[in-house]
Amino acid sequence: MKHKDLRPWLSVIAGGESLVSHAGGVLLTETARRSGVSGQLTRLLGRWRKPLATHDPGKIVADLAVAIALGGDAACDVAVLRAQPGVFGRVASDPTVSRLVATLADDADDAVAAIAAARASARERVWNLAGAPVQDGRVVIDLDATLLDAHSEKQDATRTWKKGFGFHPLLSFVDHGGPSGGEPAAQLLRPGKAGSNTAADHIVVLDAALAQLPAALRTRDETGRMPVLVRSDAAGATKEFAAHLHTCGAEFSVGASFAHLDVHTALAALPKQAWTPAYQARRPRAAESGVQIEPRDGAWVAEATGLIPLPGWPAGTRLILRKERPHPGAQLRITDADGLRVTGFLTNTARGGPAAQLADLELRHRRHARVEDRILPRGEGHRAAQPALPRHRPEPDLGRHRHARRGPAGLVRQARAARHRRRLRAQTDAAADPRHRWTAGAHRATPRPAHRLDLALGRDHHPRPRPALRAARALNRPPTPRPRTGAPADHAEPAIPHAQPQPDHKEDQPRQLKITVRALRKIEASSTPTEVAPGI
C-alpha cells in the first residue's frame, strides 16, 4: 500500500527570490511528523472523528498548535495556515475547527489525557535518540506561574492580583541547561484569583510533569530516590508540597519565605567564618570552552539549618542563606541586615558529593530564573504575541473638513465671513436701540455652559462659542483701521465710528457699548419680528 502523507514535501533553496509567508512553520510541522506527535495525535484522537469527516482531528489539533506558535491567540488564526495549502496542506475551516473544539470540550478529561499521552510518547522517542537533558544525573523541572489577560468575559476569567482581568496558569518546564532553553512539560489553567502558593495546584502540575518523563527517568533507586530535581520560587515553599515531593522521592529546591522564619536570630548567631563566597557563571573567554564558574564579588552563602527550627518540613530539609550588596537604587527590606540583601532557599539535597557545596547549591537554585524567559508574564516587560491590528482608512469627510479652507470654495466662505464682520462693525451706532436684533441667528443662541474646573488627569474641554457669543466678541473687538490711499471715491467703504481718532480728554471719550450674551437675549425678548437691522 502506498503511503500518502498529510503534508507536502518541500525543499529549501538558499538565495531564491520567491518568498512564502510563515514558511518557518514548516519546521514545526516537520518536527511534529518526525518526532511522532502527529501520528500519535491521529491515533489517540481518532475516537472523536465522525464517520464521514474529511479532516483528521489530530491534524486539526496540530494545526492549532502551529498557529499559536506563529503568534495566533484565537482559533480563527488558523486561517494563516489555510492561506498556504502548498506549505501546510489542507487546513480545516473555522466552523470545522469550532465543532471539533466543542466535541473535545464535552469530554475534556479524556481528550486532555490523550493529547498528554501523545506528547509523552513523542518525548520518549526524541530523548532516546538525542539524549535526555540530564544535569548532574538529574532531570530538572521548574515550576512557575504567569498572568494572561482576557479581553472579554471568558470562563474562569477573574480579577488578578495585579489588578488585571484574566487567568493565572501554573506551568512546568524541563530545563535543558545552558543556552539551549527548555521544553514545556505540563500546565494548569487557573482563574485569575487563584493563589500563588496553593499546594494542591503545585501537586497536580508536578504529577502531570512527572508523567511526561520516560519511565526510566522516574524510577526510584534502592534508596527510594528519583533522579528528578524540582525547583520553584517562594510560591512553592509550602509544607504540603514539600511533603509530596518527599513522598515521590524527588529532590527540591524552593525559595524560602521569611514571613514565618526568625532570620534575625540566625544572622546574629552565624559567625563570619560560616560565610563563604558565592559563585557566578560567566561566558568563556579566549582559549576557554563551556560555562565558567568563578567566585562572585560581594555575595556570600551560609547554612542556617540548625539555627532556625523547621517544624512540619520533611526530614533532611536544609536552609541556606545568601547575603549580597544591593544593587544601586535597590530598597532594603525589613529582613535585611547590615545594609546587605538577605535571601534563602530550602532544599533536601544531602551533604557531600560532587556539586553539593553551598555555593554550588545556591548557584543551582538561582538558575531557576531561566524559567522567566520561557513563560509570558504580563507585567515584567514580557507580553504575549498579539495579532496586528487592522489599519482603518481615513474617512473622506475627515479629509474634506481638514482641507476646507483650501481651494475656491474655502476662499468664498472666508470672504463671506469677513464681509459679515464688517457689516456688524458698521452697525455699532444702532446698538443703543434695545429693540434691535443684531443677528439673524440670535434667536437660536443658548447660554454658554458653566465653566468646569480642570481635572487632575487633563485639561477640560471647552465647547466652541455660540453664534451670538461670536457676534458679541466681534462687536467688542476694536477694529483695525485700513489705509485708503489710492482707492476710488465710488468704491470707498463707509466710515467706521470706532476708527475715528479718540479725544485726548477722558471725559470727552464716547461711551462704548459692551455687548454680552445676556444683553443679546434681552434684545431678543424685547424686539419684534419686523425690526431687523438693514443689510443683515
What does this molecule look like?
- By secondary structure, the protein is α+β, with helices and mostly antiparallel strands.
- It contains 15 helices and twelve strands.
- The chain has helices at residues 25-35, 37-44, 57-69, 79-82, 85-88, 94-106, 108-130, 199-211, 239-248, 263-269, 358-366, 396-402, 407-426, 467-476, 517-526, and strands at 139-145, 148-149, 158-159, 165-167, 170-175, 182-188, 228-232, 251-255, 276-282, 292-303, 318-324, 341-347.
- The strands form two sheets. Strands 6-5-1-7-8-12-11-10-9 form a nine-stranded mixed beta sheet, sandwiched between helices.
- Helix 2 (37-44) packs antiparallel against helix 7 and helix 8 (199-211) runs parallel beside helix 9.
- The model is unreliable at 377-406, 435-462, 489-500, 505-509 and 530-536 (pLDDT under 50).
